[in-house]
Design goal:
There is one protein chain. The protein is α+β, with helices and mostly antiparallel strands. Helices cover 55% and strands 25% of the residues. It is built from 3 helices and 7 strands. Strands 1-2-3-4 form a 4-stranded antiparallel beta sheet, with no helix packed on it. Strands 5-6-7 form a 3-stranded antiparallel beta sheet, sandwiched between helices. Helix 1 packs antiparallel against helix 2. It starts with a strand and ends with a helix.
């Protein structure tokens, strides 16, 4: 396999890819943390620590909003590096991205997991999203070739 394309990822694509990739990690912030704060707030209320109780309930509501804000801020900082004309070369060894400012080479063996979504291939190192490739950057034949290659790699890891 040796596929070379020219592509410029949009800010919306970066945001969607990051959201998809961070979904599992965000589950803790969006579900577990507020639940813990609500329970702790109820315990404080029962112990007549009303001010602390109210603070914990406010934090339970604010935590998911703060997390969303932080992720958007992080994504915005990355846009100047990501949303530029890019040459992507995909081979059996890995993939390379080239811009006017940088060149990055990532070998497939570096990734512990590849998640295929309708819109992206998301690449993880341990549980952290490390990279993504938008499927719409590739034509149908290239998508089929790359998708089959990545699926075969993931199946080989399981076996």
């Amino acid at each position: 396999m040796d596929i070379t394309i020219q592509y410029e990822v949009s800010p919306d694509e970066v945001a969607r890819a990051l959201h998809r990739g961070l979904k599992r990690q965000l589950r803790t912030v969006y579900l577990v943390l507020p639940a813990v704060l609500v329970v702790a707030g109820a315990v404080c209320f029962l112990a007549d620590a009303v001010i602390i109780s109210v603070g914990m309930l406010v934090a339970a509501v604010a935590a998911p909003m703060a997390a969303t804000w932080a992720i958007r801020r992080l994504a915005r900082r990355q846009l100047t590096y990501l949303c530029v004309p890019t040459t992507v070369r995909v081979t059996g060894e890995g993939y390379e991205t080239r811009t006017d400012q940088s060149t990055t080479m990532m070998k497939w063996s570096m990734f512990s997991r590849v998640e295929t979504t309708p819109e992206f291939w998301l690449f993880f190192i341990n549980r952290q999203i490390a990279a993504f490739l938008p499927k719409n950057a590739f034509d149908a034949e290239q998508q089929a070739e790359l998708g089959g290659f990545l699926a075969a790699r993931e199946n080989a890891k399981v076996a």
